């Protein structure tokens, strides 16, 4: 550590760190400054759309690696890289690093230590999905429920705070996502519904780390929504918030996805189980929930609704309308009015058998005998599997094509919920409370990359893959879609046709989040390679049996002929 800090001090004299005091306005304008990537999702909307077009369909075949940087981690690279003034900031589960964006040279690297028992209660992959940047600080979460702020120039710790009790890893909580900073407030969610906790969102002061507010996703006894929990089941009700949300400055609303109820076995928690499997609209200053939309009441299948809600302006009945869109794990693509949460459209975007549609008046799914049988304890075969039609990986939206680019899964499962378990906070409530077996209908196709119409759920095109892609997508103004493959390929796809135009083999599987940026009038694309996460570890996918581990950061640019 001392050597790393000394190296950072030496480089600070030669590496340009101009204008590191990012303000709230800088974050709001992230989409207008393609030289930097300051906000998770490449802007508050989460569209993951870039106006850059230097790399295009005609020249993308000349894309070559400029440099690669090892992050010395074997757990999986899901981090979203931040880019500011020629420096890339990236995280793993136990490290934060600053790297020269043009050379890959390490500027500083900080290791974060955990109590040994912490990693034993992290449900679904020992990972971290990224940091936030604000007023010269890199702010990130740690899996033992700490937030730390580091000096962006040196990596030196500025402040460190612990989420107030009872949010501890001993009670099943873990912070694996990236913070979202809005007007100086750090908004953070938690993972851990599979350990019988009561989910929440929190707000902290970005300058000091002071805890400002907490919004529980599961109502306490007597609060609105508590009537949807049988007995005392709300005490261990789940409702994690482990994937980063989005923000609309005009409406002053943060949109955040809320996860599955606990336990997986629905026979222990009769009722709709509010407010699990929901999309929240929240005031960032207070944590007040303004509206919610629930996707899967009394969910038996672990169909998390944590997928990042994308904010966009689309035409509805010929008129422009600001909407929030979520490609939900349960297989339906929801389009909601951004102001009030009114349901506009809900259509399947993959194979779904637990419901045959969604009632546009009530917003409730029209469940089938498969769903009802699962609630009764019968053995059923259901699509999608526990992994969903999509999982945590992020879709992108192009305002030019009007399409969403979504990496989907094509896997089902047999499912049976035996007698309901007795739970206590911090005790396992996921695997073991139900019986599941993977089902496929084509051994050569477990996933697709799709270009999807938001209002119909129909794909303009789809590209099949032997294993599902857990990489997020990125779309550019030159109508290129960038994504990664779990067998290691980093690819550029024609956004209009789905044709794979370029592919480069990285050392490990890609489950990361590509970004693009420019420096000195040259466009670059950056992504992490490093297989990991719950699907790679537990799905039994034969195509991934020999996939090598190891996280590295890669940056690409056009080869100058």
What's the short version?
It is built from four helices and 38 strands.
Q: Explain this structure to me?
A:
It is a single chain. The protein has 561 residues and is mostly beta strands. It has one domain (2-558): Methanol Dehydrogenase, Chain A. Strands 1-32-33-34-35 form a five-stranded mixed beta sheet, with no helix packed on it. Strands 2-38-37-36 form a four-stranded antiparallel beta sheet, with no helix packed on it. β21 (332-337) and β22 (343-348) form a beta hairpin. The longest helix has 10 residues, at 2-11. The protein is globular and about 65 Å long. The protein starts with a helix and ends with a strand.
List strands and helices in order, with pairings.
Blueprint lengths: L1 H10 L12 H5 L20 E2 L12 E8 L11 E3 L2 E6 L2 E6 L5 E6 L20 E3 L2 E6 L3 E6 L5 E6 L17 E3 L2 E5 L10 E6 L5 E6 L29 E3 L4 E5 L20 E5 L6 E6 L15 E7 L2 E9 L4 E6 L5 E6 L6 E4 L6 E3 L1 H7 L4 E3 L13 E2 L6 E6 L2 E5 L18 E5 L7 E6 L6 E7 L8 E3 L3 E5 L4 E6 L5 E6 L9 E5 L2 E8 L4 H5 L13 E7 L3
Parallel strand pairs: 1-32
Antiparallel strand pairs: 2-38, 3-4, 4-5, 5-6, 7-8, 8-9, 9-10, 11-12, 12-13, 13-14, 15-16, 16-17, 17-18, 19-20, 20-21, 21-22, 23-24, 25-28, 26-27, 27-30, 28-29, 30-31, 32-33, 33-34, 34-35, 36-37, 37-38
